Amino acid sequence: MPNLLQIQALSLSFGGLHAVRDVTLDVRSDEILGLIGPNGAGKTSLINCLSGLYRPTSGQIQFAGHDLARQDAWRIRRLGVSRTFQNISLISELSVLDNVLVGGHSAGAAGYWASVITWSNRKERALRADAIALCERLGLADCLNELPSELPYGTQKRIELARALVHRPDLLLADEPAAGLSHGEVNEFGELLRDLRQEMGLTLILVEHHMGLINAICDRVAVMVSGRLVALGTPETIRNDEAVRAAYLGGAGEAA
Ligand SMILES: Nc1ncnc2c1ncn2[C@@H]1O[C@H](COP(=O)(O)OP(=O)(O)OP(=O)(O)O)[C@@H](O)[C@H]1O
Fold this sequence. Notes:
By secondary structure, the protein is of the alpha/beta class.
């Protein structure tokens, strides 16, 4: 499989704190790559660099022929990279459908309001139809007009996922999507991600502490410790890697 994303010698520092240290990593088209590591290992910081929320201190990020390392977040999103956040960030005053539509609008160059003014009605209608179809696919058809806060947590997670997928990204960065879900919901969510990868031709980077989910759906797993990439391989290889077990799996990661 060709590489969709190439991360080369990427580092990010906050003053003297090295959150990401010299990470080099290729992500293949259509793969699900798990990103694991203890708390504070730098997983979210790496994702934040990929999505343009943080500017890396040094290094390169090549995505489908574009250099992302010094791009603004909205431009990265328009190039086809989307993300979900550790903490659900839905807009409580908007309905489920409007929350999802905001995801489609924010892929525009100047953000939601400018695009509301400039988008043609035809594009608006197409986006709306697309958002409704996606909501139906994610099991949200019955709650399109409800407020997210009145819905169960697992449903809110699916709304967030719909919002990230509505502009049809090529790469989805999912930051702890299983956090807070029950055992059954985690399994369902994993199956959904795997199916969506197939249906939408998605490539996924999945930051997760839930090892059951990582083992169930990831093609490869990357392990970060103290900002560094310390191992990369199939879930089975990573499970049996002594150094990884010592650094991580024997500690925080075993719980899930
Ligand atoms: N904006 C920031 N300013 C200062 N330090 C930060 C900032 N963001 C992250 N850090 C620090 O960078 C390090 C890596 O944090 P990061 O959140 O990337 O780790 P993580 O692997 O995602 O952890 P967790 O699994 O707990 O989410 C931590 O020491 C954290 O405190």
